[in-house]
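Lab channel / #folding
Pinned by the channel admin:
"Please post every new chain as: sequence first, then the structure tokens as a reply. Keep commentary short and put observations after the output so the thread stays searchable."

First post following the new format, from NK:
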Amino acid sequence: MKKLWFLLGMGMILVLVMCGVSDDTGAIAVYSEPTGADVYLDDSLTGAKTDCVFEDVPSGHHTVFVSLEGYYGWEEGVVVEPGEVDTVDAVLSPISPPLELCEE
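Reply from TO:
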């Protein structure tokens, strides 16, 4: 009887592992307006451009930085929970051109 319980227990552990229940990663979806911005994750350029999704991100605190030429950079801290998708929506503000003085 002990062998049966042991085998059932091992089978349950195998099922949980195969289903990803013990996985401690999540995902981050990054969107921006306008799109096509470079995305940095934890200070590293990812090579991806918005809109994009990063899968298998370790759970915990991460920093997302979005950058596009002609716009101010945008940064947000996110906390990734296991099995969850955290969404980041960056609205980028254009850098105003320098004002020119008008001569009268």
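NK: The chain is about 15% helix and 45% strand.
TO: also worth noting, The mean pLDDT is 84.
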